[in-house]
């Protein structure tokens, strides 16, 4: 039995993961796919949340709205979480924005559930808050968005929703079915990543002008 375990580890049909648990070939493929999708998803988050899909009107509009504020004013502008200001239409839009922020990190929670086989609450919280802070700091320093404390809260909720969905997928799908599903998502994310890189290159002059005035 021991020789069989060693042989499976050597020929790639099995072995142990970094956490010491047995890993099959399908599980290794699933983990690699999850890592690849996670990397592409991180870039797509930056493209959507910071670079605003490289939409020139959005980029210029955000910059014009924030350029008259000092760094301190921008930090304090939205310091109170869920403090929706404006008319009813604006409040509804801000509420929907909060819901979207709550859901946007859910896919990351699902993926990292496959990347890290053992659940550690401190690591999950650190990864979620670290990534959220990274996005908020990018928005603050580049003046391509305005950070808000509520984003940290809603993103954390969304991340743990993703972890819960990961547990559901583990119960409903076999490893091979998950590999097929993740392979499809890899193709979709690859296409989206190529498109986002193309639009970013098309907008590089505008981005350079804005960043040269803010950094």
What are the key terms here?
mainly alpha; 10 helices; 215 residues
In short, what is this structure?
By secondary structure, the chain is mainly α. The chain has helices at residues 2-11, 25-49, 56-66, 71-77, 88-104, 106-115, 121-142, 149-172, 175-202, 204-214.
Topology at a glance:
Elements (H helix, E strand, L loop, with lengths): L1 H10 L13 H25 L6 H11 L4 H7 L10 H17 L1 H10 L5 H22 L6 H24 L2 H28 L1 H11 L1
Helix pairs in contact: 2-6, 2-9, 5-8, 6-8, 7-8
Query: What does the radius of gyration come to?
Result: 21 Å
Helix content: over 70%
Query: How many strand elements?
Result: 0
Tell me the major beta sheet.
none
* Helix/sheet category: mainly alpha
Q: Provide the low-confidence segments as ranges.
A: 1-16
Provide a descriptive summary of the structure in words:
By secondary structure, this protein is mainly α. The protein has one domain. The chain has helices at residues 2-11, 25-49, 56-66, 71-77, 88-104, 106-115, 121-142, 149-172, 175-202, 204-214. The longest helix has 28 residues, at 175-202.
């Amino acid at each position: 039995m021991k020789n069989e375990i060693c042989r499976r580890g050597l020929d790639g049909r099995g072995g142990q993961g970094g956490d010491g648990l047995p890993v099959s070939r399908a599980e290794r493929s699933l983990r690699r796919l999850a890592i690849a999708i996670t990397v592409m998803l991180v870039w797509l988050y930056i493209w959507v949340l910071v670079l605003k899909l490289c939409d020139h009107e959005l980029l210029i509009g955000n910059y014009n709205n924030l350029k008259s504020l000092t760094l301190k004013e921008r930090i304090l502008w939205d310091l109170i979480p869920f403090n929706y200001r404006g008319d009813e239409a604006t409040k509804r839009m801000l509420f929907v924005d909060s819901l979207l922020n709550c859901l946007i990190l859910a896919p990351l929670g699902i993926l990292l559930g496959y990347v890290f086989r053992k659940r550690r609450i401190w690591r999950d919280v650190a990864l979620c808050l670290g990534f959220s802070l990274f996005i908020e700091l990018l928005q603050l320093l580049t003046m391509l968005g305005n950070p808000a404390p509520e984003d940290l809260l809603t993103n954390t909720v969304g991340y743990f929703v993703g972890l819960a969905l990961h547990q559901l997928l583990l119960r409903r799908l076999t490893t091979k079915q998950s590999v097929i599903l993740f392979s499809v998502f890899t193709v979709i994310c690859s296409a989206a990543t190529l498109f986002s890189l193309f639009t970013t290159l098309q907008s590089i002059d505008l981005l350079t002008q804005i960043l040269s005035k803010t950094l």
